[in-house]
Amino acid sequence: MKEGGLRKIVAANWKMYKTRGEAEKTASELRVSMTEETAGGRRVVIFPSFTNIAAVAGVFAGHPSVSVGAQNFYPAVEGAFTGETSLNMLRDLGATWALTGHSERRHILGETDELVARKTAFALQEGFSVMLCIGETLAQREAGELDKVLSRQTESALAALPPDSLGRLAIAYEPVWAIGTGKVAGPTEALEAHAAVRALVLKLLGDAGRSVPILYGGSVKPDNAATLLELDNVDGLLVGGASLNSQSFLQIVNA
Ligand code: PGA
User: Fold this and answer.
1) Which atom of ligand 1 is nearest to the CA of 239?
2) CB 216 within 8 A of CB 238
3) Is 7 helix (H, G, I), strand (E, B) or coil?
4) Share of residues in the chain with pLDDT > 70 (%)
5) How far apart are CA 68 and CA 74, in angstroms?
6) Which domains does the chain have, with CATH numbers?
7) Nearest residue CA, atom 1 of ligand 1?
8) How remote is the CA of residue 180 from the centroid of ligand 1, in Å?
9) In this structure, what DSSP letter does residue 60 have?
10) Ligand 1 site, CB within 6 A
């Protein structure tokens, strides 16, 4: 941990991969190596599919530094929302974290800033920890709109934070052009974007914004993880593809 830095978080987003048996196998392989010591001071969060949350949470039950989260949920306590899943149901399976604003949900499933804001506030209010994802597309970056996009996404999502919820908020900066493409943001790009997000969070939340972890995501691999983790304002990593394999994810957790 950098002096004065936040406790790093390394998160695995398993997306729509793995049957229950496969998820349990990967989780068990991770569990064997993730003693308190190898996970270091780092916190690990695993986001499996809904159908695998109970199995993965079972494997890590009682682990001091590994938590399980939901990739999605509907922001209502319960009701006539066919096909949707509530946070109470997910909590019951062992999830304590929730992802909001992931670029695949924004760009493929059509989630708007307004819905992302509602989900973020709702999950925090329900006592979940939330990893809010933000990030620009290549077209937006090339049009010089990086700052504009990051401020729009961050300001709208954090506009109505419930009281006493800041300690449960993390932000993941994930440039859309780097997700699943093998094109990781270079250190300069990551530094610049993370500094912009930190400045935004400080503007919106005051000094308390210093303690909000900002993770980098987008083609994180065992060979670039250490470099990214050393950058200022990079308080962790959100890993997709390279988290599906236990060995590569462990290398990233221990990078
Ligand atoms: P990737 O995905 O690591 O496969 O680029 C990251 C993410 O979508 O969170």
Assistant:
1) 3
2) yes
3) coil
4) 96
5) 18
6) 9-253 (3.20.20.70)
7) 240
8) 5
9) T
10) 13, 174, 179-180, 217-220, 238-242
